[in-house]
Amino acid sequence: MKNQLFIFLSVLLLACTGTPKADLIIRGGKIYTVDNSSPLVAAVAVRGEKIIFAGSEKEIENFIGEKTKIVDLQGKTMTPGFIEGHGHLLGLGFSELTLNLENVKNYEELVGKVKEAVSKVQPGEWIIGRGWHQEKWDSKPVKIIKGFQTHELLSAVSPNNPVFLTHASGHAGFANAKAMQIAGLNQLSKEQLQKNSSDGGEILRDPIGNPTGIFIERAQSLIQKFIPQPTPERMTKAIELALAACLRNGITGFHDAGVGRETIELLKKMKRENKLSVRLYEMISGSDHFLVRDYFNQGPQLDSTNWLTIRSVKLYSDGALGSRGAWLLESYSDRKETAGMALMSMDTVLKISREALKAGFQVCTHAIGDRANREILDRYEIAFKENPDKAKDVRFRIEHAQHISSQDIPRFAELGVIPAMQAIHLSSDRPWAIDRLGEKRIKESAYMWQALLKSGAHIVNGTDVPVEPINPIACFFASVTRQTLKNEPKGGYEPEEKMTREQALKSYTLDAAYGAFQEKVKGAVKQGMLADFTIFSKDIMTIPDDQILSTEVMMTIVGGKVQFERK
Prior knowledge:
Number of helices: 20
Low-confidence stretches: 1-16
Radius of gyration: 25 Å
Mean pLDDT: 93
Distance between the termini: 57 Å
Strand content: 15-25%
Oligomer: single chain
């Protein structure tokens, strides 16, 4: 009787009020929904932060009211809002505040940028930068030790200012003589050098024991601990710049991979002040044991407004291919004496995985090399089997999953583990990664997107910003072509592993939302979903491959509000 009364009242209310009027209507172009029941629609109506209708131009007329704002696409293309599936928000912001070395073409140009920076600061001030990658330079330095440049030229242009320049991957750093002097590192510090080289890091040295300026993995901390920490004001500024950069690039959601306590508190403050313009999914840093303990005790922080969610922890199992820190089952092809390294104990990974299951937290572990991927899958599997009741739909992730043994590819889907992969890494790394792994391993086990998708895995796409620029168009291009951003080689590297356009779009929208347990509220254009959209100048689903990179983000809408518009 109560149900009948409720239905009667609902029908009566609808008859009295008619179709609800929209705050925003978008029409006049192609709208890809990533909704299998209706993949392409002509118009969308939004009320508040949510979609109330997605369908035809004729039907949308019913939702137009006196105060309805109408966005005419004028033939442009709209998709669900793109989600950066693995990035570093603070790193993105600081890349706009410090020396950006992404585009330096050689060592001499890097030195020139540092020289220019020295002329603008006082003696003694630190010069910080990031983005250089020796494998991408158009010429090799005159002096090379173990594949890297040495500090002499850098030290000559900055004798009184300590310099520390982080590799594009974040897994190595380059210091000048002044910085090493401050850190107390020299030929005589043999004990410290030896200890660090066997403790998850390596200091490269010349034949007589002098450090070359290159610090790999945890060895970077020997320099970093002397760099003044940024103030809360500077961190807030970096976050503001990062959010603006996201919106310019059509990013409406961001999976923030590994954040500390101070950053989380700043983000909470910005949320309270309604200053967040991109939806954030935070992974707390597994390196801070006290932070992990506190959040495991509190439990996941699920935000009903979907602006700031904290329910995952980020671990690091190995390094990167560029620094030869990725942990491999066999030695590097271009440096036989090493197979990379583990950055943390696998017993610790297992311990945290067990605790995370009990606390309701997702575990997201950085693993690039094939051994790292296997070891992490093994630890996840042990934890799942020990506690099957808690292990249902926990969506543990492996971040990067760049190089996977063919034996381990099916295990992702079998275990329900999500590979969070950055397609743009293929464009940047594949030309030189073959030197690290050799032809057989590169072809059979690296960047295995299609193999993972066919096995049933959900791929979360992204850029690992600031390792790569946050531009999703370049990453989408890499996903569907497997080419460099110079359109090389023709047909792409290992073309059988390309994603289809539909798969690539889903990896940046609905599957990215799935990777954060948010696929029921975002990632598709359908009734009831959050009104987060990205509008492109061209139809990225149908234009020829060679036109994708010239596509621009024209508008970014988050929660029904236009947050960015290209003039």
